């Protein structure tokens, strides 16, 4: 029996054969699903381009869900697919190869869902997980504030208990897709007079209600997937408190850990697609013949593969019941720097064309995908924890170095 092609259950050969069969099933399903009405969704969406064909991509999310291709890492008892790490990687690789659209449900799938599975009540799981899995409920993150971005512990948005509800007052900012979201998960201060990490709680908040005002923030790309969110007496039932009052910091940090785990594989789908398009552009316009640019493109390819292996290591820890920890900051620091450099590389591959505005004369400026990548990626080393903060976390909590 040839080695590596088949074998008894549990042997490396059997595992590879099983993964190969799974890959073929995923590839065939995507090829069929991305024909017909969803053919025009190929390649759409992603950072800086979340406005593209949003309704069509929402239909795609629900089509994925109906076929069982959402919530791949969730346990089956909570409606997930319960896939192994290897199977999740295969799916995301094939998703990228198929040029499938950027998903609109990743925040619920990759952040809220795992948080509720780990820390939520059975009632919360029963109510909130099925709509996420079905693509029927979209979520946003309500963490950063004008005075509490990378220094999140300085947040001041407050919530007070009023009977069976919490009443929320304050402001959040840089909330991705809040204008599309049905729900948000928020870190708020529930203990008057508390400071820093103390007295914070983790609340799940219905977004479509009086007392919530959402104002889009227009970025350099001309798009507005980020938002300011103002709370003026908005309410959420006390049953939407995750964990105990005052335990919000621990749960909130765990959510960020999930974001940098399974969630990262979905993010890398877009990164790899962007890189492949830049390589194709370089081959079309002759930039590939420039040894310096070709070397940078090869290094970018190596970089995205390193990201993949880092994500695999994080996922392997998750399957071994190792909770997300400060080491996940390494991944965030790495991908944000890599992606920013990719935007710069895209401009160099474009050459003089990078200075030309898109769109017809007299029409509003419409950036090319490469221009949008460059402009939007300026924010990569700031949001989700600035690079300076990530380096502090790595130094103090991972390497054990003294505080500055």
From TrEMBL:
SUPFAM superfamilies with a match to the protein in the record: Acyl-CoA dehydrogenase C-terminal domain-like (SSF47203), Acyl-CoA dehydrogenase NM domain-like (SSF56645)
InterPro entries: Acyl-CoA_Oxase/DH_mid-dom (IPR006091), Acyl-CoA_Oxase/DH_mid-dom_sf (IPR046373), AcylCo_DH-like_C (IPR036250), AcylCo_DH/oxidase_C (IPR009075), AcylCoA_DH/ox_N (IPR013786), AcylCoA_DH/ox_N_sf (IPR037069), AcylCoA_DH/oxidase_NM_dom_sf (IPR009100), Mycobact_Acyl-CoA_DH (IPR052161)
Residue span, Acyl-CoA oxidase/dehydrogenase middle domain: 140-232
Transmembrane in keyword set: no
Domain Acyl-CoA dehydrogenase/oxidase N-terminal: 18-136
Alphabetical list of Pfam families matching this protein: Acyl-CoA_dh_1, Acyl-CoA_dh_M, Acyl-CoA_dh_N
A cellular component annotation (GO) from this entry: plasma membrane
Gene3D superfamilies: Acyl-CoA dehydrogenase/oxidase, N-terminal domain, Butyryl-CoA Dehydrogenase, subunit A, domain 2, Butyryl-CoA Dehydrogenase, subunit A, domain 3
Cofactor: FAD
Domain Acyl-CoA dehydrogenase/oxidase C-terminal: 246-398
Single GO term (MF): flavin adenine dinucleotide binding
Domain of life: Bacteria
Key words, A-Z: FAD, Flavoprotein, Oxidoreductase
Family listed: Belongs to the acyl-CoA dehydrogenase family.
Protein name, UniProt field: Acyl-CoA dehydrogenase
Source species: Pseudofrankia asymbiotica
């Amino acid at each position: 029996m040839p080695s590596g092609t088949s074998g008894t259950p549990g042997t490396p050969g059997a595992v590879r054969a099983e993964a190969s069969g799974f890959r073929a099933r995923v590839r065939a399903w995507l090829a069929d699903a991305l024909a017909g009405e969803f053919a025009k969704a190929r390649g759409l969406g992603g950072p800086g381009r979340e406005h593209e064909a949003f309704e069509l991509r929402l239909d795609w999310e629900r089509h994925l869900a109906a076929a069982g291709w959402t919530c791949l890492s969730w346990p089956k008892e909570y409606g997930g697919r319960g896939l192994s790490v290897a199977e999740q990687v295969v799916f995301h690789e094939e998703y990228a190869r198929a040029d499938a659209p950027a998903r609109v449900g990743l925040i619920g799938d990759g952040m809220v869902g795992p948080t509720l599975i780990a820390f939520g009540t059975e009632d919360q799981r029963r109510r909130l997980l099925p709509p996420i899995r079905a693509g029927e409920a979209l979520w946003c993150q309500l963490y950063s504030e004008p005075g509490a971005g990378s220094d999140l512990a300085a947040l001041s948005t407050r919530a007070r208990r009023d009977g069976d509800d919490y009443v929320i007052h304050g402001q959040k900012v840089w909330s991705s897709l809040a204008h599309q979201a049905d729900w948000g998960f928020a870190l708020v201060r529930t203990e008057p007079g508390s400071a820093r990490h103390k007295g914070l709680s983790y609340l799940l908040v219905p977004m479509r209600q009086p007392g919530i005002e959402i104002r889009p923030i227009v970025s350099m790309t001309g798009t507005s997937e980020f938002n300011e969110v103002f709370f003026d007496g908005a309410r959420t039932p006390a049953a939407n408190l995750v964990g105990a009052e005052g335990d919000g910091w621990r749960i909130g940090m765990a959510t960020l850990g999930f974001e940098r785990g399974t969630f990262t594989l979905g993010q890398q789908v877009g990164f790899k697609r962007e890189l492949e398009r830049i390589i194709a552009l370089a081959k079309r316009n002759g930039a590939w013949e420039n040894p310096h640019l070709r070397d940078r493109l090869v290094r970018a390819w190596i970089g995205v593969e390193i990201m993949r292996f880092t994500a695999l290591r994080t996922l392997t820890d998750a399957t071994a019941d190792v909770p997300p920890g400060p080491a996940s900051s390494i991944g965030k620091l790495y991908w944000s720097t890599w992606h920013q450099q990719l935007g710069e590389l895209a401009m160099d591959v474009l050459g003089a064309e990078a200075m030309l505005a898109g769109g017809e004369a007299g029409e509003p400026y419409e950036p090319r995908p490469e221009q949008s990548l460059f402009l939007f990626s300026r924010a990569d080393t700031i949001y989700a924890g600035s690079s300076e903060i990530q380096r502090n976390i790595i130094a103090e909590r991972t390497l054990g170095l003294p505080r500055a």
